[in-house]
Structure formats: structure tokens, C-alpha cells
Amino acid sequence: MLAMSDINCIKHLRNKKGLSITKIKETLGINWRTAKKYADGDQLPESQIKQSKGMMYTEKWGEIVSDWLFEDSKLKKKLRRTKKQIFNELQNLGFKGSYRTVCYFISDWENSHNEGMDKGHDRLEHPPSEAQVDFGIMEVVKDGEFMDIHVLVMSYPYSNAAFAVPLPSENQECFLQGLKTLFNQIGGVPRKIRIDNLTPAVKKVRSKTEEAKLTDAFIQFQNHYSFEVQVCNPRKGNEKGNVENKVGYIRYNFFTTSPIMYNFEELKDTLRVQLQKDRQRLHYEKEVLIEDLWKIEKSFLLELPTEDYPVFKEVEAKVNKYNEAKLDNTLIHIPKAANYPFIYFVLSWDKFKAVSPEGDILLEDFRPYMNKKRAIPWVSVFKDWIRKPRVVSYSRYQKYLPGRVNDYLMVEDLVVRKERLIELVNLLVTHDMKRINEEFYDLISGKNENPFGLDWSQYDSLAPIERSEKS
């Protein structure tokens, strides 16, 4: 085919100068048929893309194989069909083509759908099944005291869906257990996870000359679930901005007032339901429900492994002469531990086992950080309530009052309420709130024989709402 400038010259000589085909041939030194073709023919644009032909493209077979290949892409390599297996399954369905035809089609599909597809995405467009992970510290109330918990948040920028699990710490056992819990909650594994330089996962941060190095435990976990890992540059939180924003969103929407936590399992279920409801809103850019986008994105997730991954860690510990060994910066008393030169701690995210060198379990209990709490400043709170007793019913702290104390204060007469607040403040000088509630009858009834107008035996038999009404 001639260059467009040559074609334009032939058109000019023919239409503007009126030369014959033979004259154009002689002038430009080209073949007569070429001169005729470009002088008098219409040069309409044609697509240069070749259309795929053959039975794999024109019949149903290509679509069948594409579905199989997409399904298998979610599985580990050893679980995927081979080309020979695909060919045999097609023959069972009535396929009349050759094995080579199937191989050519599979090769074309892999070139356009595997790693090359991901590399073609602009990072800002966030391809489906790419997740970002980060921790956020939230405050809850457990057993009448403040407690800081660490919420592991996993966000999916493509759909803006988020999932979260509360944990007591950010150590290796909690991090891996949190990821495992999120995978099971979601029903699949993201193809790629972007993290910052979390100590449980990264043992050496990225530098100008080399990539970040991951811990052996995290690599083993990664290999089991088959996801890729991308570590952000140091001090570059913007590289995982979606999950950074999501941590703040969860904090300000679900932890504005510290929720009451009975245990981690209950709070985990509460967060799951809240975030599931939160997906019933429009995506901030795409103007589509997050839930609808998540359904699309979920189809790209990797399959969960069939074998469960046990999350634990074994560490050796020295024992002092008082049968004590240090765990989580706390000395733990372990009966008969001093009989051994050392012991082992087998650690899960919430519990530990102290094991002798011979394998005998010496002690099994919750890890010390499971009970790391801070007292609510009740004296300060009560002093504010004394100035404005009406505010008790609307205060964020009212729901944290233990049952008997709460019922004692919830009276309509504000003068009486103020007197009772003063009485409780005086008791808080020598007693904590938990003890006041437990010994309520002895501490309060000594000053007020019948504060509820009932016998104590009657009071105990009433349901909480009835006690409130009686008070």
C-alpha cells in the first residue's frame, strides 16, 4: 500500500490536472493498475484489527473454555485443569476440533487475561480483588472500664467495601489471625494485599536499593493463601489512602462513643453487621451502590484453601526462682516451672500455653493483654452530673453504669438524684465502681434502708426494666 502522501499526489494529478492513467503511470513510475486503483478508486478507512476466526471463536467452545480458565485462575496451580484435561472434557461435550486448536485458544486467553491484564491497570483505577490493610486503635468499655483495642481493617478500593475484626494487639499472632478471620468472613482471598511496614509482616523496610523483606511466618501464611503482597514505601501512608480513610470512617461512625464490648467475638459480629449495612449506599465516585460493586468484585477473589491454617507461635522463656516467666511484658506465675531450665510458650492471639521441655502443659490461660483496661473517671463524671443532674439520662457515660447503680440514679426527682450522686462520689473515694455495684446492698442500705421502696429480695427478683420503673 502506498503512503498517504503518494495517494494524495495521484488524486491531485487525476482530478486537478486531468492527466490520464497512462500519463500518471509514466510521471510517477508506478504500475498502471496501481495508478488506476488510487486515481479512480475510493480510499475508505479500514480496520487493521484482525478478527479471530475458527470454531473456538464462532461457536460455543471458546466461551466454555474461557469460563473454565476463569474459574481455575482462582485456584492454586496444582488444582487447575491442564490443557489435555480441558481438551478431553470438550470432547465429552461433542467438540470435533484438534488438541492444537484448543492450545492456541488457551494461549491467546492467557496472554490477554493473566498477569498482563493487571499490569495494564492504572494504579488509581484500583483493579478488582486488590485489598489494602491497616490497624486502627479504638476505645471500648469492657466490665465497666475503658479498653483500647486494635481493629484490623481491610478495604477494597474498587468497590469501597470494608471489613474489620477487633483484636487485642498488633503482634504477629493477632495480625495473621485477623487476616484469616477476614478471609473466612468474606468467603475468599484478595489477589493482592497492600500493607505498610507492619512489624508482624515486614522485617526489613524498603530502601532505595532493595525491596522490603517479609518475615518467614508471613511468607508461609501468604503461600498458603496464594495472595500477592505489595509493601508501601516508608512514611507513605497515601499509598494506601483508601484503608487509611476507612479506618477513620469506622472510628467516627461506629466508635464515636465507646461501645460496650462483652467479648471480641460479639464485637466482631456487631462490626460485620454494621459494615454490611453500610454497603447499602452509593460509591463516592461511581454513583453505584457499594453492595452491587462488591458483588462484582467478589467474583474475582481467590478461593479459600481447603485446609485450615493454624495460627500460633512458639517461644522459649526463662523461669526465675519464683516460678515466674515473662510474657507480653508481664510476669506470669507458672506452677513447678522452676523445676525446668526453661519452658516454652505456645501463643495464639488470645491465649497461651506454658509447656515443659518434655511437652507437659503446665498452665493454660488468657494472654495478659486481654485484661489491659483503664478505669472510667467516675469521680469527675459524677461531679459534672451533680452540677446538672438532669443530664444523667443523656450522658454518653450513663450506659456504662453497672445495673444496680444505674437503677439507683434513674429517679425522676432531680433533688434526690443529686443527693445520690453526692453519696456515690463519697463512696468512690474508698471504693471502685465495680465493688460499689457488687456490695451495693451493704454500702447503700446502711445509709438508706430502702432506697427503692422494696425489700432487697424483691429487688433481686425483678427484671432490669421493672427495677427502673420502680425506682
Give an account of the 3D structure.
About 40% of the residues lie in helices and about 15% in strands. Strand 12 and strand 13 form a beta hairpin. The protein is elongated, with a radius of gyration of 36 Å. The protein has five domains: about 5-40; about 55-120; about 125-300, Nucleotidyltransferase, domain 5 (2-Layer Sandwich), CATH 3.30.420.10; about 315-370, no CATH class; about 375-470, no CATH class. It has about 475 residues and is an alpha+beta fold. The strands form four sheets. Strands 1, 2, 3, 4, 7 and 14 form a six-stranded mixed β-sheet that branches. A four-stranded antiparallel β-sheet has the order 8-11-12-13, with no helix packed on it. Strands 5-6 form a two-stranded antiparallel sheet.
Low-confidence stretches: 116-124, 449-471
Coarse morphology = elongated
Record field, number of beta strands: 14
Please name the CATH architecture of the largest domain: 2-Layer Sandwich
Number of helices, counting only DSSP H or I runs of 4 residues or more: 20
**Total tally of structural domains:** 5
CATH topology of the largest domain: Nucleotidyltransferase, domain 5
- The CATH fourth-level homologous superfamily of the largest domain: Ribonuclease H-like superfamily/Ribonuclease H
Report how far apart the termini are: 98 Å
Could you say which structural class the secondary elements and strand pairing correspond to?
alpha+beta
CATH class of the largest domain: Alpha Beta
Radius of gyration: 36 Å
Can you give the helix content as a percent range?
40-55%
| Main pleated-sheet profile | 6 strands, mixed
Percent of residues in beta strands? Answer: 15-25%
